[in-house]
Amino acid sequence: MLRLKELNIVESREVLSALPQGKKMINTINAHSYNTALKDTLFAEALKNCDALIPDGASIVKACKFLKAKSRPIERIAGWDLFILEMERLSKNGGGVCFFMGSTNEVLSLIKERAAKDYPNIIVKTYSPPYKPQFSDEDNKEIISQINQAKPDLLWIGMTAPKQEKWVYENWDKLYISCHVGTIGAVFDFYAGTVKRAPIWWQRHSLEWLYRLLKEPKRMWRRYIIGNTLFLYNILRENRY
């Protein structure tokens, strides 16, 4: 069973910046993924066994402090923060190949167009997988082949949680790469400009979730209204045992 107080969570951006090069699996955890992992064993394993787990939510930072957890992050580190850190590091180190796997061809085209301006020394390669709940063996072979052939210096996976984390975890040994791999979901849309991220004020006051709820109430109400209440319940329950 997943227990927040026992997880190894990156405690600051400084620590994340010092993550060694090489094949590393980087995931995020927030209230929604914590709730989901409590009832999804494979997802829980992916979070527990990755090389770096970043606290993508003020709720996680506060809960770790409340639980007197083994890891007590001092700040929220969003998937966007990870994305910018890694892209700038690759660019400053001379550039290379960055592979984006996930989303639609339209979004991937917009990503490639923007990255060409922001990071001209980074070659962007992409692959849009079939849109289905579960990939077939043939689908997985093609995705893995596309990634391995590209020989990326940085790999981003964007298929929403928990699908993206579980896919990377299950196929980790088939990926013949030696780079950081980040599961960053909505960041694909943020960077492409197809979804607007919350303004800085909302981010600084830990209200990015509320901004998304107000923008997409029909899609987000269950995740944030019910989900946040469930998160509080689950944290209180963990604290009792």
Short description:
This protein is α/β, with parallel strands linked by helices. It has 12 helices and 6 strands. It has one domain.
Order of helices and strands: HEHHEHHEHEHEHEHHHH
Count of β-strands = 6
How far the N terminus sits from the C terminus, by CA atoms, comes to 12 Å
Average predicted confidence as pLDDT: 95
Helix content class: 40-55%
Stretches where pLDDT falls below 50 for ≥5 residues? Answer: none
Largest sheet: 6 strands, parallel
Number of helices: 12
Model description:
This protein is an alpha/beta fold. It has one domain (4-197). Helices cover 51% and strands 13% of the residues. The chain has a six-stranded parallel β-sheet, with helices on both faces. Strand 3, helix 6 and strand 4 (122-127) form a beta-alpha-beta unit. Helix 2 (31-37) packs across helix 12, helix 3 packs across helix 8 (163-171) and helix 11 (208-215) packs antiparallel against helix 12. It is globular and about 50 Å long.
Topology record:
Elements: H1 13-17, E1 24-29, H2 31-37, H3 41-49, E2 52-55, H4 58-66, H5 79-92, E3 96-102, H6 105-118, E4 122-127, H7 137-150, E5 154-158, H8 163-171, E6 180-183, H9 187-192, H10 200-204, H11 208-215, H12 217-240
Parallel strand pairs: 1-2, 1-6, 3-4, 3-5, 5-6
Question: Which key terms come to mind for this protein?
Answer:
241 residues, alpha/beta, 6-stranded parallel sheet, globular
